[in-house]
Design a protein that fits this description.
Blueprint (H helix, E strand, L loop, with lengths): L3 E3 L2 H4 L2 H5 L3 H7 L7 E3 L18 H21 L4 H23 L16 H36 L5 H5 L2 H22 L12 H28 L2 H17 L20 E5 L4 E6 L1 H11 L2 E4 L6 E2 L4 E6 L6 H9 L1 E4 L8 H15 L7 H19 L7 E3 L5 E4 L5 H16 L3 H17 L2 H18 L5 H23 L1
Parallel strand pairs: 5-10
Antiparallel strand pairs: 1-2, 3-7, 4-6, 4-8, 5-7, 9-10
Helix pairs in contact: 5-8, 6-8, 6-9, 8-9, 10-13, 10-14, 13-14, 13-15, 14-15, 14-16, 15-17, 16-17, 16-18, 17-18
Length: about 500
């Protein structure tokens, strides 16, 4: 537990002297920082990619901040269907200009034309390109129509929030981009050919490439249909979302110091509330920017929001400790570090993928679908994710400046909250689905045998809730099937408490 105490004015002049003390002496004195607070707590190793470390140059810190912003921008661009088609169309337009320029600089020599190269005159070339353009527009309309139908089915079966997984798929974007780029290529090429051109001035290579692109689009159409048919299968979507959840869990820090209790706000120090200036979902928080501002202005920031939450305009987003007042420019810089948007994103939000999986399972258990096997697949992947999560520490909540002073204290979600988010909706939606309840009980019992401490108590609590739910079932055999999976884990937990 960390308790922040304001330093006396006389200590402010001792900052440089304390900074020169060896790290061992500072640990022995228990002093991790100077003005405006001292953290009376055990030091821990901060994340190198999130916080500034002593000895790290300002240029490296600035570089990390720029890379983090660039990563958020790329993450936003990945979910935009127009990006890849726009890039491919630009390449197609540049390719037409380049090929026509080469044909102009190097006219076709007289003689026999290879079989694979277009050898007709200008009129034949225009007729061929017109036919290809008409066919490509028809196939593009077919591709877009198929995509819209599949998205409609996916929204009804898997949930509307999973549509972003289809839109952000690089293969789907590439196929649509290939069709649009081919249309643009043929259209620009067709404009450059008129019937008055002599045989030696017909861009044979460009016309040949247009024919090759049309053939590639036909095979891409078959690939697109196969891709969409596989994507709409619930097991495929569950696997893809679960894989992203595993990647997000793998990115969490494995720092035992994150398991300890974080610092608490104190009431004996000046506090300023910084309210949100608009409403929206917290998409990500620039902790490094908050840390830099807090170090520059010499105060500590408590963050009351966390990524994925919804902030109402006027709600307290931040608390400033150690200052009686801050300037409007500082307030604006602090709020600018919290990115609000109209929708949730997976950036810094571990709950995002968990809720996507839960939504698939809840919809599968609805009376309109009644698909318990999809729910079982979700439970299996959630259990695997929770087992991996139990072996890791929660996200970091303390961020320090380059001198080692705690400057930002964030809000984090713990293991018990994530388990409740993942399993409670499934238990309620399963209702009388005995098969689903049995699998849920078996996975919880397996988790109880793999974890310990407070995490095990969380799993046992959910096992007990499943057991109480099983007692309400009308069929005794169904009750016995569920209790048979629960009772060994409960007995082992009771034996551990007795020891």
């Amino acid at each position: 537990m960390c308790v922040f105490q304001p330093s006396t004015p006389g200590k402010r002049s001792e900052r440089k002297a304390e900074a020169n003390l060896p790290a061992r002496e500072q640990r022995e004195e228990g002093d991790l920082g100077t003005a405006p607070y001292r953290a009376r707590c055990r030091p821990h190793r901060p994340l190198s990619f999130l916080v500034n470390r002593p000895g790290v140059s300002r240029s490296r810190v600035h570089c990390r901040k720029v890379m983090q912003r660039l990563w958020h921008l790329l993450d936003w661009l990945r979910a935009r269907l127009w990006l890849v088609p726009a890039l491919m169309s630009a390449v197609a337009a540049a390719g037409v200009y380049l090929i026509l320029s080469i044909d102009t600089l190097f006219p076709r020599p007289s003689g026999t034309v290879p079989w694979w190269l277009f050898g007709g005159d200008a009129s034949t070339a225009r007729d061929l390109l017109s036919t290809l353009l008409s066919g490509m527009i028809t196939m593009t309309s077919l591709v877009v129509s198929i995509t819209i139908v599949v998205l409609s089915l996916a929204a009804g079966q898997l949930g509307p929030r999973l549509i972003w997984n289809f839109i952000g798929d690089r293969q789907i974007q590439s196929v649509i981009g290939l069709f649009i780029a081919t249309i643009l290529y043929i259209l620009l090429l067709l404009r450059s050919i008129n019937e008055s051109l002599g045989p030696e001035h017909v861009p044979q290579a460009a016309v040949t490439i247009a024919s090759a692109l049309a053939v590639a689009c036909m095979f891409a159409l078959l690939f697109h249909v196969n891709k969409l048919a596989r994507s709409i299968v619930s097991d495929t979507m569950v696997r893809e979302v679960a894989d992203r959840l595993d990647v997000a869990i793998g990115a969490l820090p494995s720092d035992s110091a994150a398991d300890r209790s974080g610092p608490e706000e104190t009431t004996d120090t000046p506090e300023i509330s910084v309210d949100a200036d608009r409403s929206g979902y917290v998409q990500f928080i620039q902790y490094e920017d908050l840390c830099a501002t807090a170090a520059e202005e010499d105060f500590v920031v408590f963050v009351h929001l966390r990524p994925g939450g919804f902030a109402l305009r006027g709600i307290a987003a931040l608390s400033i400790h150690g200052k009686f007042d801050i300037s409007p420019e500082t307030r604006e810089r602090l709020l600018r570090a919290i990115k609000l948007g109209h929708e949730r994103t997976p950036t810094q939000d571990l709950e995002y993928s968990i809720r996507q999986l839960v939504e698939v399972a809840v919809r599968a258990l609805s009376p309109s679908l009644n698909d318990p096997f999809t729910a079982i697949a979700v439970i299996n992947r959630l259990a695997a994710a929770l087992e991996s999560l139990a072996r890791r520490s929660p996200p970091q909540s303390e961020f320090r400046d380059s001198d080692g002073n705690i400057r930002v204290i964030g809000s984090r979600i713990d293991f018990a909250d994530l388990v409740d988010i993942a399993l409670s909706p499934l238990r309620r939606a399963a209702n009388s689905q005995v098969t689903v309840l049995v699998v849920l009980a078996e996975r919880l019992a397996g988790l109880a045998a793999l974890v310990d401490g407070s995490k095990r108590e969380t799993i046992i609590k959910h096992l007990q809730m499943v057991g109480r739910h099983a007692a309400t079932l009308p069929e005794p055999e169904d009750q016995r099937a569920i209790l048979a999976a629960i009772e060994p884990a409960l007995a082992a937990s009771a034996g551990d408490h007795a020891d």
